[in-house]
Structure formats: structure tokens, C-alpha cells
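User: Can you fold this complex?
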Amino acid sequence: MAVIIFLPFLAAAFTFLIYPFLKEKTAYFAALIALLCSILILNLIGTTGSVSIPLFSSLDIHLRFYVDGLSILVGLLASGMGILTFIYSFGYMQTKAQSPTYYASLLVFMGSMLGIAFSADLIILFVFWELTSLSSYLLIGYFNDESSSRSAAKKALVITSLGGFFMLLGFLLIHSITGSFDLTFLLSQPESIQSLLRTHGVFLPILFAIIIAGASKSAQIPFHIWLPSAMVAPTPVSAFLHSAAMVKAGVYILGRFHPILAGDEWSLILITLGITTMIITAFFAVISTTIKELLAYSTASHIGLILIGFGIPLTLSGVPSSLGFVSGSFHLFNHALFKAALFFIAGIVTCQVGVNAISEVKGLWKKLPLTAGFAIFASLCMAGIPLTSGFYSKELLFQGVYAVASNYGGIWWLLPILTILASAFAVVYSLRFIMMFLGTPFPHQQDISPPPLSMILPTFVLILFSLLTIIYPSLVIDLISQSESLYFQRNSILHVGFPRHVGPPLLMSFLSILIGIILFSKIEQILKNISSISSFKHFNIDSIYSSILSTLYNWSSFLTSKTERILMRTHIIWLLGTIGILALASFLYSRPNFLMIYEPLLRFDFLIVLLIISIGAMAVVRANSHIMGVLFLSLLGFMIAVFYLLSNAPDVALTQLAVETIILVVFLVIIGKLPAYYGATSFSRVIRDIFLSLFIGITIFFTVIIATTSSASKDIATFFIDRASYPPISAENIIVDYGGGTNIVNVILVDFRALDTLGEISVVALAALSILTILSSRKPGDSP
Amino acid sequence: MTTLITRTVARIVAPLIFVTAAVLFIQGHNSIGGGFISAVLIVSAIALLYIAYGTSDLTRLLNISPSNFNRKLLVSGLLLILFTGTVPILFNMPFLTQAFLILPHLPFLGELKISGTIFFDLGVLFTVTGSLLSILSGVSR
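Assistant: Here's the predicted assembly.
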């Protein structure tokens, strides 16, 4: 289980090793990995359950994995799309700048998507969620020479990590009430969890947090702005991002929490959000000018439709129904197939024809007959024309929307009307896409070569799967129902396929197609009128986003100018001052009881060492040159080492000695580059420095006193002493529970508290790297 | 500072420090020593060589680009811990679980105990050595 998720990450590390040998064929290596993942996932079909591997057991964080229909569906989409995307990349990237980073980040992207699909631990889920943000940042900004790439990548990162922040907030709230990060546990009794959350009054905050997280990732209004900007990414990345990753991660998280959070508020918010996004972004798609922009907005619109599906209440007119959940998931699957195909086709068009604007392409069927056929089929799916896969899922959703309206009545009748309108828009933009391939070609677009096999083949596979879904829709439905039956009672077998009788949903479909065709016949006029008021196209959220961002920039640069001058001492004042205030404030707050222990200090040898230390400290202050100061300072350090030695801590003493030596060497190296002395100091600075040092001294004094007197319980000490060395009797050769060493301090460092040590040396490494960064950013001639 | 005396002393002392560091590293589990101390000792020996011979001579001698090498050392230490730490996960135990192995009847050596923490300690050694050396070489540039 864990293998499926770690495989892509491991492979990502390997790409850097094998890239020099394989060059662009790395794409096939990555495709192979994706294939392996999908085979492993296919193996899981039909199983449900969870695996748990302790990771940080003391923090209640485990590597938990959970398998059910929905996670298999999303996992299959991610790995399956992964295969096709990598194969397609081989053809697409041949004309572009290549690097192993591309394949590695795409593998990480896929791996973290699989991680999201299968994680059952909320913290692990969050980590994978953030990993998709990070890897998509690298991928969207892949062409990092262009500023539009960089700003689009930043926009996606800012917006989706904002969502991630809310998600973490929601998860922590869930943990604070239920005491569990375990999704398996939460999903095993969704109703009681929900009532528990409600009685504690945190249900609504959690609901908002999770919905914001999902909406930001799946590009719902007002977070939709990153999606059209992200089209600057390489086309295979866009295809993956829109069909199987990122966007679908947002939808998945909403589907995952659906059983726990479903209720009146859930339905109201999701349906409102979904319909708003669906209609507005569909309109943007209609009036968009470039191919990828059209597809990007249409994705947001279709996701809106899926959210409406998830929002359909679980009981309609008193009858329990899982219609919304199933139809939403089904549409998720269909959308992935046709949207990826359309993106692949868009990539072929831009690569072979060399244009992005829709209006500049016409009659491609003559030169690219196969592509044109695929494009027409996929567009018809997108439009939801009868007898296509898109039609099936749309029909189910129409049914749900109609049921909601007839159940609640009143203003809810707006819902089917708006849905029809948005679907009509979908027909219009699908027709616009088709029109690129029909008609007579422009005379200047005569020399178009057919696309390479590696680009047309993935498209063909997607079309094939769409056809398969049309013939056997039950394959997908059964997979989804497998997870849905766990949470909801099923009341009826859903009928999927061409409706047997004429009902409201079918009428809605035909109405939307009719309106769509009428609108399309007037498309030229509409576009002309719209272009005059194009400023409202981005709903002005883009400008709100950039103004928020620039305000934040201004604030932070204002703060930086106040706290971080070029002078090192300004840094240090703020740093030390803050630490001191925080430490003292926490002591004041917690009020630990401490008592002074004089006994150990009364030993004669200690007093001598202390005396030397005090004299050395005075000498440091009085020293009139750097060299003298540094030498006295290291005298202090060596005396402290002696102190450790006297208190029976040879380990610490040795470390102190060695560290002190190195510090001395570093100091001596630097000294040559320092100015001779600071010169005259002003009176005010002396006063300031005195206060600061007094303050820091007091802080450290109290910290030491409190830390040494508030000893931990005796149990932990005896535990360490017992367990550090060898077990009394043991038949086994490999022993885990015991440390196997007689130096208890070291055993604690490397065994019992190894995670802490890892954290500490990571800090050492980070400090070294930042020192290097500071040193290398220093211009020659700058004062140190 | 690069007098003949310094050079000669450094040539004799530095290997001694390296050996001491190795001994401290190996005995670390049972008495004084450990990855951190031996890392610091190694760095101090190299610092001694730097002072005696200068950076450029030493670089030519060892035939490595110091800053690059140091950074690789640093990262490889962290990665070593990360990878060996994930091994217990495969056996259904928490991250960074440590175990040790007792080989009771070896010829000449008798009973030998090998602790899995040696990898962790090696990681600490690499990381600390790499970090300190990068700081040192960065400062002295």
C-alpha cells in the first residue's frame, strides 16, 4: 500500500541520476512508474479497508492509508493520467527546454496526488496536499524565464496554500474535539461525529475551513483566478492539473468529508458556490480568446457542477438518496477523460500550428484529420450531447437539481434555470472549440505536419476510455457505489445511460442544447459587444488579489526596514529582545515554582572556576582590541568546559572544548577583515546596550533556574536508565526495546529522542546554509 | 602563520585528531564520544590544516572543490538519517526506531554488539561536519 505512494517519490529522486543517460526518454521511465502504480491500484479494486503504520506515535501521527471506491477512482485517475501525461510529454517537450526537474516534479505531483487519495491520517493528508501545491508551483513556473510564468506559479501557490492553511485549521479543530486524526475512525460513524462537532459548536468553522480548502484547490469563485493564469504551464502539465491532480484534489477532499459534513448548511453553501462558479466561469469560457483559457474556465465551470452534485442533500422528500454523491463522482471521472483529451489536442494545435488564439485557427480537419475527430468527440462530451459520457453524468446531475428544486420549491427553482443556462454556455464554448477544426482552412496555414505518435496516442487512449464509459457506464458507477454504500443506505439502483422515458432532466438537456446553438449562431455579435467591456472579464478578483499582495509587500518591507537594517547589531537587538520577552512572558504566564539550589556551588573547585570566569568576563568587556576580546571570550568557554568536567559530564565538556576551539578559529579568521575598532560610541547607544544585556542576562538567569529546578518525573529517568543498556535476559539476537549502550546520554540522543536530534542537526544544517547565503550575497567592499 | 614549525606540527597532529575522532565515534554508544563530538574534532583538524597550509594548497592536495563537497556531505548526512529512519516503517514500527544486533560467538572478538544507531550517528557526523566546514570555508573565503 505504502509502496504505491512512495514509488513516485523514489523515482523522482532517481530521475536526476538517470536523466544524463536517458535524456528525453526519461518520460518513458516516468510513464513506467505511473503504469506500475496504476497496476497496483487496479489490484485494490473491490477491497476496502485501512492500513496503519506508526510514524510519530507520540504525536498520534501515523501513516494511515484508507482504500475505498472514491480513493481508488481518484488514485486511478492520477496514475492513469500520469502514464498518458508522461508519454505525451515525450512528444511535447522535444521542442522545449528540457530538464530532469520537469519529470521529477511531475512524479512528485503524481505521488502526492496518490497520497491525498489514499491517506487516512489528516496530518499526512495535509502534508501531501501541500506537496501538490509545491510541485505544481515548480511545474506552472517551469518556463521560469517568463515573468508571466513566475507570477502564475506564485498565484497558484499563494491561493492554494491559503486553502491549505484553512484545511489544517479544520483538521486541528476536528482533532481537538474528537481526539483523532484517523479518517477511518471519523468515517466509520459520520453521523455521531457530526453531532459531536455540533454540540461543541465547532461544526460551522470546520465546515467553512474544509470548503474553503476544497474551493481554493478546485478553483471555485473567488479562488478561480489561479486556474486560467496557470495555463502558462507546459500543456501536459495543464492536462494533468485539470483532469487528475490539483483541481481534482479539491473536489476529492469535499467528497471525502461529504459523509461527515453533509447537512443543510453544507448543501446550501456548496450549491450556491457551485452554481455561481458554474455560470460565471462558463460565461468566461464563452468569451475567452485563447484555446487554453477556454479550457481552463470550462474546467472551473464543470467543477462547479460537480460541487452542486456533492451539495444535493442526502434526503430528498424524506427518501434517502445518494444521487448527488454518485453523479458528482461520475462527472468527475468523465470530466477528467474529456478534459485531458481536449488539453492534449490543444497542445497538438499549438505545437503543430503555432497559434494560441481561437480565432486564428480554422479548418484543421484537412491537415489533422485524426486530431479533429478526437476533438469533435471530446467537445461533444464536454457539451453533454446525448449519447456521450458527459451527457450521462450531466443527466444524473440534472435529475438531482430538479429533485432539489421540486423538493424545496420557491427560490430553488432558480437552480435548474441557472444550470440550464450554464450548460447552454458549455454547448457554446464546445462549439467554439469544434469550429477550429471545421470549415475551410486559412490559406497561410497550409504546411502543418501531423503530430508525433507520442502525442496522438494518449489522446486516442482517452477517447477509447470515454467510449468504454459510454458503453459500460456501470463499470465506473459500481466503483463509486462501493464507497458510497459504506456511508449511505442505497434506496434505488441508479439508471445510467440514455433515459428510457422523457422526463424533466431530458427536457433540461435539450433546452440547454437548443439555447446553446441559438447563442452560438450569434457568437460574433456577442464577442464584439463583450470586448468593449472586457475589463470586467476577470470579475476584478485578479486586481483585488494583486492589490492585497502589493499591500502585504509594502507592509513587510516597511517592517523589514524598521527591524532589519544593514547593521548586524540591529538584527541582534530585535532577535534577542524578542526571545527575552517571549521567554519571560511565558514564565510569567505559567508561574513555575522554582527554588534556588546553592549546594553544588559551594564546592571549592567550583568557586575557583567561577572566579576565573568572572574575571574573564570583565576582561572581555574591558578589552581594547578584537583579538584580546576573542581570546578572553574563549577563556570563558574553556572554563565552562572545566566546569562541566568537574560536574561529571565529560561528554559535554569534550564537546564544549572542541566547539570552543572551532569558534576561536572562525573568530580569528574573521578578525583580519574587521575594522580595527568601532571608534567612539555614543552615550545613548551605551545606555541601550546596558539595558539590553541586563535584560538578556535576567532572561537567561531565570531560564536556567527554572529549567534546572523543574525536573521531570522520576519515571522517565528510571525508564532511560533501565532501557539504555542491555536487557537482562534475551533469547533474541535483534533487540528493539533496549538501547544497547552504556553511555546513557548518547543512547538517549540517538535512540529514544532520535527525532529531536534529527531536528537539531537539521537546524545546524540550515544555519550553515543560511550563513553561506549571507556570505555569498555580500558584495565585495561591504562592511561585514 | 604558515611557518615550518606549524606545518610540521599540523602534519603530525591532524592524523592523530582524525584517529581520535574515529575512536570517539565508534565507542560513542558506550562511553564518551558520539557523532557530534567526532564531527567537531574532524573539523578542528581540518581547520588546523587550513591554517597551516592555506585553503588553496589543501584543495589541490585533496583534489576536491571544498564548498561543493561540504554541501554534499551535509545533505547526504540528512538523507542518510531520513532513509535509515524509514526502514523501521517497513517493519511496522515508528520512524527512527533503533535496534541492535548481538552476535554472540564470533571468532577472536567473542560477543559483538552492533547497534543500528551507527547509521544515525554517521548521519549526524556527516551533517555536522558538512555544516561546520561550509561555515569555515565560507568565512575564510
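Chain A has a mean pLDDT of 80. The first helix of chain A runs from residue 2 to 22.
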